[in-house]
């Protein structure tokens, strides 16, 4: 499944990939969610396995078949994803945060379903910040561990991406321009990959597998 020079270059490596979109519960039947199909994260998992890696796939709310050979950890909310990713990443060689993590969650979870009151307007939902998992990975990194983030931007794509790469302490940041159905739920993707050390790499529109293979090329270069 991989191009020349990529054959089993990740053999003996353990990689952790997050995929999908977290859901922040409001009450037992409602949530605040993110638009992410999980396709890019699953493509990263399949290509890493094809190149010989052991893969832990932390999957939030995806409707996709488990990639053969991956250790899949299902999660719901951002906080569940944080616990699963941090636990799996301790000894990992690389961590790729392809998931859309909700930035905010409802400040209080209602244990019973919110009902309409006749004639009354709804109560506002107060939000609080979720922890930034990628920034935490950047801070906790082991020597030699490679940390990769994704960023979906609608404006000033490269400037925002560069800023985010530095702020989060990642080695690589895959920047997609989103909006107008450019990415979500589609089998293809286009991106610029920014590097803390090195030149940006432009990946033309193509299969999410092709983008995944370029990500693993850059990760592989950074693992001695
Ligand atoms: N991310 C994360 N934890 C969060 C939010 C984001 O780990 N609480 C990760 C995403 O998985 C992604 C990267 O950070 O790999 C960038 O996500 P993005 O939403 O683009 O960045 P934010 O820092 O949340 O900034 P913004 O205000 O643009 O949403
Ligand atoms: Ca965000």
TrEMBL record:
Catalyzes two sequential steps in the biosynthesis of coenzyme A. In the first step cysteine is conjugated to 4'-phosphopantothenate to form 4-phosphopantothenoylcysteine. In the second step the latter compound is decarboxylated to form 4'-phosphopantotheine. The gene is coaBC. Its cofactor is FMN; Mg(2+). One of its GO terms (cellular component) is phosphopantothenoylcysteine decarboxylase complex. This is Coenzyme A biosynthesis bifunctional protein CoaBC. It comes from Actinomadura barringtoniae. Residues 10-221 form the DNA/pantothenate metabolism flavoprotein C-terminal domain. In the C-terminal section; belongs to the PPC synthetase family. The keyword Ligase applies. GO terms for molecular function: FMN binding; metal ion binding; phosphopantothenate--cysteine ligase activity; phosphopantothenoylcysteine decarboxylase activity.
